[in-house]
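agent> fetching stored inputs for the zinc ion docking request
agent> found them:
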Amino acid sequence: MRERLRIVLTYVTWPALFGSCLILTHVGITSGHPFLYFNFAYICLGSSIFAIERLMPFERRWLENDGQMVPDLGHTILSKLAAQLWVVFMLYGFVHVSSKTGGVFWPSQWPMFFQVLMGLVIAEFGLYWAHRLAHEWPFLWRFHAVHHSVVRLWFFNTGRFHFVDAVVSVTLGQILLLMAGAPESVMLWVGMVTPYIGFLTHCNIEMRFGPISYVFNTPGLHRWHHSREKEEGNKNYGENLMIWDQLFGTFFNPIRKPPVNIGIGDYVPQGLWAQIKSPFVWGRVQSKISADAPDAMNRLAIIDR
Ligand SMILES: [Zn+2]
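agent> prediction call returned; pasting tokens
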């Protein structure tokens, strides 16, 4: 009986958490208090995930402290601040186009559900390519490596992005929405769905997704994305939706269990400030380390001595 309940929970947790956030967002936007409701939903989602991670972890070892909570929090605050300032600058500095009704090309007469869906698909095209470039273009990888240097996945390191990485990604996602003439409400929806999905993709909860993974970015898919193996890690670039991974051939969802031993071969230092600096002095750090030891894990020990 207990086992059956556990299996049911593994199936319903993701839709229940995501669905509750969407309902709260809908109430917030229609009642004219979008940020109040968003923050409430975001805090409830974070604390629910924190509790469920302890009750139903995907990997028990990922509950152990990795000594990265200060950098995780620091990058989250810095990258959110930089991305939000940049969006405000783009919206009100450069263009000032986001209106209540949307631009002339935008299908404002469509039901809101389809407008939001269209907004998500358009923004995702930019987010997909920003993320794919961050993996495949060595210069951008230096910044994105900060995110992939984690050795465990849990909701707390969702926002661990170098601020330059965050600004590149938000720029590509937002510019396409602006060009499409998306109205304010669609921008709000896209801006709020993205952090909900982000929290969920990083969480350390044992869940099953079935067909959901073919549409949305789920923890099951994102754990493959954090694999040490390039053939597995350079896949599943979608931030919210998997549509562009499906179309461009980077969708990866095998039946076997995703890796638990995650991370990267490149060296990323342990401290917040050193991590912020590392992309700018990448060559120096990597060459010094690889001369000292060929193995990535040993590199950590040597540099931090
Ligand atoms: Zn990545």
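agent> quick read of the result: The chain has one domain: 2-300.
agent> awaiting further instructions
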